[in-house]
Amino acid sequence: MGNEYRIALAGNPNTGKSTLFNALTGLRQHTGNWAGKTVSLAQGSVQFKDKVFQLIDLPGTYSLFSNSTDEEVARNYIVFEKPDVTIVVLDATSLERNFNLALQVLEMTTNVIICINLIDVAEEQGININERLLTNRLGVPVIKISARNKKGFPMLLDTIDRIVTGAIECHPVQMFYPDEIEAKIMKIEPKVREIVGDHLSSRWVTLRLLDGDEALLNEISKRLVPEEV
Amino acid sequence: MDKPNIIKLVNGQKGNLIKITELNLEGVMRRRLLDLGFVTGALVEVIRKSPLGDPIAFRVSQTTIALRREESSKIEGELISNGE
Ligand SMILES: Nc1nc2c(ncn2[C@@H]2O[C@H](COP(=O)(O)OP(=O)(O)OP(=O)(O)O)[C@@H](O)[C@H]2O)c(=O)[nH]1
Ligand SMILES: [Mg+2]
Fold first, then answer.
1. For the complex shown, is ipTM > 0.95?
2. Element (H, E) at B47
């Protein structure tokens, strides 16, 4: 276990998650059931330096608010199974749409890499992406790749490595909401923290409660309460 | 200056460009439409209307998405251009 790390791949449909997964893992993959659901997620491993990264290919979704089974599986994996790093794969030609999901992930968990894929297509279309500016604004590494052409992989693997060793610390930018909502968060969050402890982001859980997310409440009582956390 | 011409998405004609001003929906349906890109300020183009007017295909944030009447009748926006 000591040098093995779990790396989840999340992202909108059709952004190249499986292409990236296959290119990195080659034939070293199998499927397994997660989160108590009979949805099988492909898993495979890639060796890097002295470490083994276990990659998990999550279903592609536009959101993680559990409007569908796919969204629920991806969300549950990220918040309850707690991968060491979550990579969000974005389509470089459609960043505005893709950032909806990316910002949701940044609210849920800390160790995130924003991986901008299809950079070859974007370049053909004359789209320029300043990944350093994005890294500064988002507080997590932003890396440009082309999964199909296997471009950008060394940088991606090195960044995963540096996050799991603690050489890079992620500080995802915090989204602020209108005063009325922030006031409610301030009121509820301390109580939420008493219940979820360090297991989940208390701010994120608070936001989901304010949104009336009962599915999440059920999931929390199923997973956290029996252990008397 | 003309007053902004506010219409419902369901009443848009092929080629119309509409800037969303309001979503009169709640709960899961609202959430789903927001996730698909129907947010205040977004520019939406009417791509195709089926013969009976339901569903209607819209282009929003570089993706084509078809909405049913019960959804498109609850989204309002400013008609920016007729698209001719
Ligand atoms: N030009 C180009 N095409 C790519 C790249 N990465 C992926 N593709 C293509 O994009 C399409 C979708 O790739 P997938 O890997 O299936 O996407 P996915 O994210 O797994 O899709 P879902 O599982 O449906 O969410 C395929 O036709 C790939 O060949 C890339 O870097 N450049
Ligand atoms: Mg896939």
1. no
2. strand B43-49
